[in-house]
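Throughout this review, each integer encodes one residue's backbone shape. One record appears below.

===
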Amino acid sequence: MSKATAPDIRSRSYAFALRVVRLVRALPADPATQVLARQLIRAGTSVGANVEEAQGSHSRREFARRMNIARSEARETHYWLRLLADSETLPRRRLERIVDEADQLVRVLVGIVKKTRESL
């Protein structure tokens, strides 16, 4: 996996960011939830932003570094989503698909980083 897989990961990470934005808008306005919402929106939208930055990299090493940052942000997003579910801020069933998508993004990004680093 490398820049050849870019369209899929680019579209998936962008769609994921949109889902995160919509989810955050639906969260209750209590102080604790707002702290979680800020963390979630930052990490969830950063995944796609770093994937986009990777597309403009000047080297494979820089591409791998950016994709690794995206992977890290996807893992963090997965954490915040699980915390929202476990704290019963929203019903778990409402969060299941986005939690699964965050997990899948992590797996795809791990594969991209691994294959890119192998080719360095």
User: Anything to note?
Assistant: Residues 60-86 form the longest helix (27 residues). The chain has a mean pLDDT of 94.
